[in-house]
Amino acid sequence: MESVRHRTIRTNGIDVHFAELGSGPPVVFLHGFPEGWYSWRKQMTVFAQAGYHAIAPDLRGYGDTSAPQGVENYSFLHIVGDVIGLLDALQLQKAAFVAHDWGAVIGWQLCLFRPDRVIAFAGLSAPYTPRNPAASPLQNLQSTFGEKHYILKFQVPGKVEDQIARMSPEAFFRYVFGTRLTLELNFLEGPTEKIPLPAWMTEEDLALYVSKFNKNGFTPSLNYYRALELSWELTAPWTGSQVAVPAIFMIGDQDLVNDNPGFAKFIGEGMIAFVPLLKEVTVFEGAKHFLHLEKPGEVNDHILRFFKTFEHDETTWIKGRNRL
């Protein structure tokens, strides 16, 4: 099997690093927090072997991609713009997308803003959430959770960064990857003992995550959360719009996202009103937040089966005429 290739392109005033493997119809993988392209290592090889061109960028603020200063540089429009810039740099008119956590949040917005660039979308962990014109995201969280929700805790510049520094980045990653996360993310009080890594992560994997975050720190990735209000303001023109892209959604039954009130009913009954081409919702038993790492075989099979249905699509994704 060929080795993963690394390249960097310039778009929207920043350098975007991405890893790629294989050739064929393009599939772009969008990672979440606190990750990077490497979190798709268990997908890229499989998709390349299946005949796809697997492309996994470090999103803005992560890994070897630029990390501009300022919360205002991390809105939905900025990140989606980087993804479009990546497609343009690779001369790809369309691609299929697989996305997890914050990557899924961005992926759903990509589908909303630019459905002309998306063949199909597989979202993990974070469902599509329609914009509420009556209340901003932080207002919604405060009315439901008070000040206990982790996204609200992440809003104070420097506070979480200092807490991670005190517990050490390694301890932080052990907590995030090695426990069943909750919406309160009690790591902020600091774990008192070393948490063992899960079976699907090695010490070498952990060291890579730590090294990448040592480069730019945690502020750029936390700015995604701190820009939520800005993103809410900027996306007002899309209020009430539907996501017009074929999609599937997957989540583990122990994912912290399930702890949101009414979540099961929304993904089972409500989301299709906003994503009318939603083909499947799958809940994996015994899986926590990092579904693609915990159960890669099952996740890969679901996505590949879904993408297989587009091999004769008139959009020419498969037929080799997918160039700008």
CATH topology: Rossmann fold
CATH architecture: 3-Layer(aba) Sandwich
CA radius of gyration is 19 Å
Oligomer: single chain
Strand content: 15-25%
- Net shape: globular
Number of separate strands: 8
Number of domains: 1
Q: Please identify the structural class as seen in this structure.
A: alpha/beta
- Order of strands, widest sheet: 1-2-4-3-5-6-7-8
Straight-line N-to-C gap: 29 Å
Helix content: 25-40%
- Average pLDDT: 94
The main pleated sheet reads as: 8 strands, mixed
Put simply, the count of helices is 13
CATH class type: Alpha Beta
Catalytic activity: an epoxide + H2O = an ethanediol; (24S)-24,25-epoxycucurbitadienol + H2O = (24R)-24,25-dihydroxycucurbitadienol
Family: Belongs to the AB hydrolase superfamily. Epoxide hydrolase family.
Pathway: Secondary metabolite biosynthesis; terpenoid biosynthesis
GO molecular function: epoxide hydrolase activity
Write up this protein:
The protein is built from 13 helices and eight strands. The protein is of the alpha/beta class. Strand 3, helix 1 and strand 4 form a beta-alpha-beta unit. It has an eight-stranded mixed beta sheet with strand order 1-2-4-3-5-6-7-8, sandwiched between helices. It has a single domain, classed as Rossmann fold, CATH 3.40.50. It is 37% helix and 16% strand.
